[in-house]
Amino acid sequence: MRDFYLFTVIIYSLLILLFLLFVLILYFAIHREESDLDKIAWQHSVAVVIVGVVASEEVEDGLEAMTYEFEKGLDKAGYRNYMIDELIKAKAAFSGSSTSHLKSLYGRLNLDIDSFRKLHSLKWHIKAKGIRELGAMEQTRYRKEIFWLANDKHELVRNEAQGAMVSFFGWSGLSFLDVIEHQMSQWHQVQLLDKLKYVKPDTFEELIPWLESSNVSVIVFAIKLATLYNCHDVYQNVAKCLQSSNNQVKLCALEYLRLMPQADTFDQMISNYYAESTVYKLAVISSLKDIGSENEITFLVNELNDPNNDIKAAAAGSISVLHPLGNGFFKTYLFATAHPWKEIFFQITNKHIA
Amino acid sequence: MTVLVAEDDMIMLKTIEVRLKKDGYHVITAQDGKEALKQIELQSPDLIITDIMMPFLSGLEIVGAVKNKGGKDTPIIVLSTMGQENVVLEAFKLGADDFITKPFSPKELSMRVQRYAQKLD
Question: Is this model's pTM higher than 0.90 or not?
């Protein structure tokens, strides 16, 4: 009897749960459908205004095209958000004076205030969207608020804010590097460098404090900037980064030195060579192919005796490039017929490894 | 002169339509590739402006179809986005006459169309 009672309770509970699940799914399906229908209904009135601005390249023409439906729609937050999304899409699709007119329309309809309000949201994705909107519509007057979000605890909010600052002010927008405490991801650094590729800074003075930052990712990014801009002025500062305890910083510095060598580059690279990791050693040996001369052959021949076979192979590869005899050097090497040198030399001579 | 504009983005499509109508052309529009081909067969436009990425049939397929089916002399301008250089080359191989990279200025498009209109005159 007791078992039967328990069984009935379980069945009823499951049925109630299933019913609640059904109601929930139904609610979200209806809500989504309503939202999709709203967008279809809004599409026309919004398009008329945007097309008016872009096609005639006059803001007034767009404002004249405003219908009653459009003006009424502007009372709804959803409609305004849809309008912002469409304006941003249009701004990305067109160039010339239409873009400044689209920006002007965004301001005339006070949509910047909607975007600005999003910066105070407790939800990170809304905050990030607000920054993206203000950035896309070049609303530089909100720079102070966006600047402080460049150090937000949420990575995507920080990334949006940092991206917006660079879009607004180019090189000087990088001033957030003075204050950020959080690490910048490699991918985000790539995106910022991409935004900066056509920017020509007047001075590289800012690089010096960034190269000494307590934030490792700022140092790495500063070295990448110095590399991107072929900045020889900070050569000594970058060379100092080889003393860093962080491997990534050292490898980035090596890459800079490889691309912008000076007379003392090799000495800088090997100042602490024997205490370094294998990755570092391999990077130094490999960079000698580009920056080395016959003077470094003794060092490389010495590296052929390293217990690590990867280092032996890398050293042999660089010797084949730098030695006046090229691959012919291998025949003169004392252990040329012994393992593993025999195999390494064979592979290099036959261009299987370089 | 009749211009067919095939573009799936409504704002882009309407903008081009309004701009070209202002310039005095007769404009036909299509929001997908299938519709575009249908309009081409029905109305034989003098100039075709087509986006590359579209539902059902891509802009490349439209270029191929027009140039292979007796529309060899109908000039086609392809609308591409940045980073689609390979696709643009493919469009040229298929017979496209010109391309415009987004973002573009409506004035620029207007000038290009005018050039083809003068040739047709």
Answer: no
pLDDT tens for each residue of A251-306:
999 999 999 999 999 999 999 899 999 999 999 999 999 999 889 999 999 999 99
> Which residue, A109, A144, A179, sits at the end of a domain?
A109
Contacts of B104 in chain A (CB under 8 A): 94-96
What domain range includes position A71?
Answer: 1-109
CATH class of B2-120: alpha beta
Which residue bears the tokens 């970058």?
A238
* A316 domain-assigned: yes
Q: Which residues of B touch A (CB under 8 A)?
A: 9-12, 14-15, 18-19, 22, 102-108
A43/chain B closest Cα distance in angstroms: 9
* Total count of domains within chain A: 2
Nearest neighbour of B105 by CB, restricted to A86, A92, A94 = A94
Domain boundary among A109, A127, A143: A109
Condensed to tens digits (0 to 9), the pLDDT of residues A114-165 reads 999 999 999 999 999 999 999 999 999 999 999 999 999 999 999 999 999 9
Rounded alpha-carbon distances, angstroms, from residue A316 to A216, A305, A307, A335, A352: 33, 11, 14, 13, 13
The verdict on a CB contact (< 8 Å) between B18 and A47 is no
Q: What ipTM, to 2 d.p.?
A: 0.86
